[in-house]
C-alpha cells in the first residue's frame, strides 16, 4: 500500500478475496513523520483538538496529560454505540483497509504500531462486529469505525476467519496478536473517516457494473423473443444524441442479437409494426444513462480513494488543522443517485416482463407463457414478485441525503446521512439482481416457445446456460427456486460472460 491511493480493484481484493495487506517503505516513513508532529504538539501547553481536548461539543474542555491515554480509549468505547444486526463482512473489511490507506498518508498522526495492528487484523481474517445503525455520515462514520477499532483494543465481538463469533481478546490471542493502547490523537484517527460510505460505494460500483452488463443481455433476449427490432439501436442513430453509455448499450444489443433467426423471420413486408414499445426501443437511453451515472460514481470513488479524511489532520508542513472534509455529502449524493438508477433499470425490466406474459401484447404466445393456460398459471406470480420488488426499489430510491438531523449539542448541525444511502443501495442492488432474474426466466421461456425459429447464437448460449439450472417450459412447478437460481445467475455476471464467449 502506497505511495499512490488504493484502486477499487485492490479494495475489492481485500474485502472479498482476502488479499494480503502490505505497506511500502514510503508509507511507513509518512506515518512516522505524521506521528512526530503529534508527539511534538502533545508536549506543548496550548490546546490541540483531539490531542489535549475533548471531542465534538466538548472541544473546549482541556484534558491534562495524565488523562490523555484514557481520553483515546474513551472515545472508542463511547463512540461504539451502534445498534441492530451486524453488517456484511466484506463491508467491514473494506472499511478497515480504506482506513489503513488513509493512515498510510501520514495525515492522521497514528503510530506505526497502530497501522501495523490494523493490517495484522485484516491478514488474520478477524472481522469486528459492526452494527448496522449508528452513522450519520458526518464527522466520519464514527460508530461503525469505532466498533472496528474496539477489536484493536481486544474489546468487543469479532468473527474469525471461519465466521465464528468470539470475544476480540480471545481471537487476538489465537492469532498471536496483541491488543494496542491508543496514544494521543489515535482515537480520532481510528474513527473520523468516511470509509464506511466509501466501502459501500466501491463495492456497489463493482456490483452495478455486472448487473448493467446482465441487464443489456436480458433486455436483448426480450427484444428478440417479443419480435422487436434492433433498427433503433443503429450506431448512426445513437450518435445523434451522443451520450457514451447509450452507445455502449446499443452496440451491445446489436452484438448480442446478431445472427438471430427469430429477428430475421419478421424483417420483411409482412411485418406491420412501425416501432416497438418504449421498454424495448429505449433500452439504450435508460441503460446508457445508468452507465453514465456509474461512470460519475466511479470518478467520485477515485477522488475519495485519493483523499486523507480526518479531523484534525496533520499537514505536510507540520501543522495540526481542523477541517470539514469529513462531511459525507460527495458520497451520499452519488450513493443516492445509484439507487435511483437501479430503480429505473428495474422498472423497465418489469415492463418487458409484463409484455411477455400478456397475450394481447406478446405476439402470439400463450397467456403467462403457461403450458395450458387456465389449468396452468405459468409465470404469472413470478411477475407479482418482480413487481413487489420494483415497488420496494422505488422506496429505496428516495434520497437519504436530502434529509439531515442536528446532533452533538448543535455542533454537528448538518449531516449527510450517507451511511443510510449506502445501506439502502446495497439492498437495492440485491433486489435488482432478482428483478433481472425474473425477466431472464420469462425471456428464456419465450425464446423456447418461438421454436422452430432459432435465436441468436449469443442469446441461445445464455438460454442454454440457464437451462443447466432451470428447466424449460412445461406444466406448473414450484417457481421460487427457479427465481433464486436465475437471480444468482445474474448476480454472478453470467449473462454477459456467456453471451460474450
UniProtKB/TrEMBL annotation:
<dbReference type="InterPro" id="IPR024083">
    <property type="entry name" value="Fumarase/histidase_N"/>
</dbReference>
<dbReference type="GO" id="GO:0004397">
    <property type="term" value="F:histidine ammonia-lyase activity"/>
</dbReference>
<dbReference type="InterPro" id="IPR008948">
    <property type="entry name" value="L-Aspartase-like"/>
</dbReference>
<comment type="pathway">
    <text>Amino-acid degradation; L-histidine degradation into L-glutamate; N-formimidoyl-L-glutamate from L-histidine: step 1/3.</text>
</comment>
<dbReference type="InterPro" id="IPR005921">
    <property type="entry name" value="HutH"/>
</dbReference>
<dbReference type="GO" id="GO:0019557">
    <property type="term" value="P:L-histidine catabolic process to glutamate and formate"/>
</dbReference>
<comment type="similarity">
    <text>Belongs to the PAL/histidase family.</text>
</comment>
<keyword id="KW-0456">Lyase</keyword>
<dbReference type="GO" id="GO:0019556">
    <property type="term" value="P:L-histidine catabolic process to glutamate and formamide"/>
</dbReference>
<protein>
    <recommendedName>
        <fullName>Histidine ammonia-lyase</fullName>
        <ecNumber>4.3.1.3</ecNumber>
    </recommendedName>
</protein>
<keyword id="KW-0369">Histidine metabolism</keyword>
<dbReference type="Pfam" id="PF00221">
    <property type="entry name" value="Lyase_aromatic"/>
</dbReference>
<dbReference type="InterPro" id="IPR001106">
    <property type="entry name" value="Aromatic_Lyase"/>
</dbReference>
<dbReference type="GO" id="GO:0005737">
    <property type="term" value="C:cytoplasm"/>
</dbReference>
<dbReference type="InterPro" id="IPR022313">
    <property type="entry name" value="Phe/His_NH3-lyase_AS"/>
</dbReference>
